[in-house]
Write a structure and sequence with these properties.
Elements: H1 13-24, E1 38-48, E2 51-61, E3 67-76, H2 87-99, E4 107-110, H3 123-131, E5 135-139, E6 157-161, E7 167-172, E8 181-187, H4 191-200, H5 209-229
Parallel strand pairs: 1-4, 4-5
Antiparallel strand pairs: 1-2, 2-3, 5-8, 6-7, 7-8
Helix pairs in contact: 2-3
Length: about 230
């Protein structure tokens, strides 16, 4: 994949906040998807000693959700752990991994937030803007906002609201009687369409198959690399 750079990554936390504020206005919360043939899932695992990031991107065919390509990058961590700024810790290594892809995904699912973020610019929005692709944030835990629990059946969802009751995402029940996940627009997609694709990317698990496979991939990568180092 070819990626057009938007900004430098060697910035301070204060500068990173300003980047988020500046770029948040460029996020598009609508868009008509054409035929979706490939869906990518992306995730990052970390080690503390040495401080490394293990990034993985898994591309699946859609709608059968068969893995067609995997790519990885291992990189030193340069940005500190700061809630709300995790994109500046994870995005550089993820974008390097996306650049290695031969297949061109039509839709990207990120293990993290999109609009459901204090500044409306989580990692799914950041990655989506860099890739210029429809992108969905699929987070396992709540970062920002409030919601009523959805009904216990799969497919039920309730709005996730932020400041002034603005809808910033949804709590979606992806499996009967399990905790919901938090879905939000990353870029170039509307929320109802994002929810629909998250549910269509289910494989009987709580986590959508693209990000579930990416999570498993980076966990294996970390174990293998740690074993080689030791």
């Amino acid at each position: 994949m070819r990626i057009k750079p938007l900004h430098a990554w060697n910035c301070s936390p204060k500068e990173a906040v300003e980047v988020q504020k500046r770029l948040s206005s460029q996020i598009v919360c609508r868009g008509r998807l054409g035929k979706v043939r490939f869906v990518a899932g992306a995730d990052v695992a970390f080690s503390n000693s040495p401080p490394l990031a293990y990034a993985g991107v898994v591309v699946l065919s859609f709608p059968d959700l068969v893995i067609r390509e995997t790519r990885e990058t291992i990189s030193e961590l340069t940005f500190p752990y700061i809630p709300g700024l995790l994109s500046f810790r994870e995005s550089p290594v993820l974008l390097k991994t996306f650049e290695k892809l031969r297949l061109d995904p039509d839709l990207v699912l990120i293990d993290g937030q999109g609009l459901a973020h204090p500044r409306g610019f989580g990692i799914a929005s950041h990655i989506g803007l860099w890739l210029d692709k429809p992108t969905i944030g699929c987070a396992k835990s709540l970062l920002f906002g409030s919601f009523r629990p959805p009904n216990l059946s799969r497919g039920s969802w309730t709005p996730l609201t932020g400041l002034r009751n603005r809808v910033i995402g949804a709590a979606v029940r992806t499996r009967d009687k399990t905790n919901p996940i938090f879905v939000s627009v990353g870029h170039k997609i509307d929320l109802p369409t994002a929810i629909r694709f998250v549910l269509e990317c289910g494989h009987g698990y709580r986590i959508p198959e693209p990000t579930r496979q990416a999570d498993a991939y980076v966990a294996r990568l970390k174990r293998t690399h740690s074993g080689i180092m030791h």
